[in-house]
UniProtKB/TrEMBL annotation:
A Pfam family recorded for this sequence: Radical_SAM
SUPFAM superfamilies, per database record: Radical SAM enzymes
Cofactor: [4Fe-4S] cluster
Stated name of the protein: Radical SAM protein
GO molecular function terms attached to this record: 4 iron, 4 sulfur cluster binding; catalytic activity; metal ion binding
TM segment ranges: none
Keyword Iron-sulfur in annotation: yes
Annotated ranges, domain Radical SAM core: 16-252
Keywords: 4Fe-4S, Iron, Iron-sulfur, Metal-binding, S-adenosyl-L-methionine
Native species: Bacteroides muris
Amino acid sequence: MTVIYPSPIFGPVHSRRLGVSLGINLLPADGKVCTFDCIYCECGFNADHRPKQPLPTREEVRSALEARLRDMQQNGPTPDVLTFAGNGEPTAHPCFPEIIEDTLALRDKYFPNAKVSVLSNSTFIHRPAVFEALNKIDNNILKLDTVDEEYVRVLDRPAGHYSIRKIIEGMKAFKGNCIIQTMFLKGSYKGQDMNNTSDKFVLPWLEAVKEIAPRQVMIYTIDRDTPDHDLQKATHEELDRIAERIRETGIPVSVSY
């Protein structure tokens, strides 16, 4: 079963990559809003979860976050990270930059050692206000699943015009203040082989990663149910091989199996 997250606050959950993570969902609680429609998304396909509720307001997010942080300060647990994730692309919210400012202030007040992370598909990093907001947080985690234009349209299914070259240029503008996150998987989708663990996909992607020069790369594979059931996890050995290629470039890498 895929999952739709509560809004605007959910968890905390234990993240494979980030630790004890309090989730911040800037999308409606009854559906999914995303500029991608990934075939591996744990929230399911966009068409299956059209929301009827509005986006949470800036004030609703701030109030709910402060209430939850106050409760955690009194009763635990201590969060390692406050993570913008949930039912779609968080940077799509019209008040995303202002909400980041509120979140940083609340983090400093209640849990100054916690990190603020954003999981983004990178489609709005060309917007100056979004770019500036992402530059202020601790973990600016940007998706780059592939540099193959044909493959990305089957795997991530971006809405409207999408240029991998422009995304890479946008990532480079962070001058290293970003983390690249990439999904590796196998299996098939509508009869098409989706294995992106081979050198055909890994080597061009690795060249783009070197060009972007992020401070870290996160590689992972399927962990939860996916809307398409013919997909398979990449093996430990496959992920380890890719990770070693990254380490050879001098860029730190984390692997989530």
